[in-house]
Amino acid sequence: MTQEPAWEAEFRTNGAEETQALAERLGRVLRRGDLLLLTGELGAGKTTFTQGLGAGLGVRPGIISPTFVLVREHPNLGTGPDLIHVDAYRLGSEGEVDDIDLEASMDRSVTVVEWGRGLVEHLSDSRLEITLIRAVGGGPVTDGGAEAGPATDFEDTDEERTIRLAGFGPRWQQAPDLG
Ligand SMILES: Nc1ncnc2c1ncn2[C@@H]1O[C@H](COP(=O)(O)OP(=O)(O)O)[C@@H](O)[C@H]1O
Ligand SMILES: [Mg+2]
Predict the structure, then answer these.
(1) Domain 8-138+158-169 indexed as CATH 3.90.226.10
(2) Whole-angstrom Cα distance, residue 140 to residue 1?
(3) pLDDT level of residue 3 (50, 70, 90 thresholds)
(4) Which sequence spans correspond to the domains of the chain?
(5) What residues are neighbours of ligand 2 (ion), with CB under 5 Å?
(6) What's the gap in Å between 48 CA and the centre of ligand 1?
(7) Residue 121 gets which letter from DSSP?
(8) SS3 of 111, please?
(9) Alpha-helical regions (H) of 28-111
């Protein structure tokens, strides 16, 4: 297991659509066997990011949080890899990860694991770690007037996120071109 990233890259997005657009560009360069770990607090945007990955990969739409099923499989609509979307929040050990047998599908799929850090690194010699960070203090950033009224629907408020990518292992010696 590789401990030092070959490279790190940082992006800022403003709103879910920008996060999905970034993830969509990444999704287009992913290949079968790729393992992605998504880290970030509840509501940081891990599932939102995965929706963009799915769009870039060309899998069947309808990606939602897999929290209550642990694993969801989204078949590719063309010839590209399927997407295996995992929520490891309730998994306590590498042994429990091995019980759900992600290895069986890994070679033909892209495997994306929310809350995967410390649990799934052993599944591959390479991985892409993605960390989503909410602005400290939360709440919408305003320019002093544009958002005078109180926000009533926090779920749909565009917020800033910092998104860090780090590549580990032979597959990710080079940073992908997301330009
Ligand atoms: N820049 C942003 N990137 C991603 N999501 C954002 C952003 N700004 C606001 N949001 C909102 O934050 C929420 C993220 O939820 P979700 O993707 O389910 O998070 P997680 O899977 O990390 O718990 C969504 O309601 C989304 O619309
Ligand atoms: Mg989620």
Answers:
(1) no
(2) 39
(3) confident
(4) 8-138+158-169
(5) 46-47, 65
(6) 6
(7) G
(8) strand
(9) 46-57, 94-99, 103-106
Considering the chain, what is the average pLDDT of its residues?
90
For residues 113 and 120, the answer to whether their CB atoms sit within 8 Å is: yes
C-alpha to C-alpha distances, 169 to 36, 47, 75, 130, 179, nearest whole angstrom: 12, 24, 26, 15, 22
Ligand 1, pocket residues at CB < 6 Å: 13-16, 18-19, 40, 42-48, 65, 114, 155, 158-159, 161
> pTM of the full predicted structure?
0.90
- The encoded tokens of residue 33 equal 């066997």
CA of 105 from ligand 1 middle (Å) equals: 27
Q: Which amino acid is at 138?
A: G
Site to probe by mutation for ligand 1, drawn from 48, 50, 115 as the one with most ligand atoms within 8 Å of Cβ, is: 48
User: For residue 157, which atom of ligand 1 is closest to its CA?
Assistant: 9
Q: How confident is the model at residue 148 (pLDDT cuts 50, 70, 90)?
A: very low
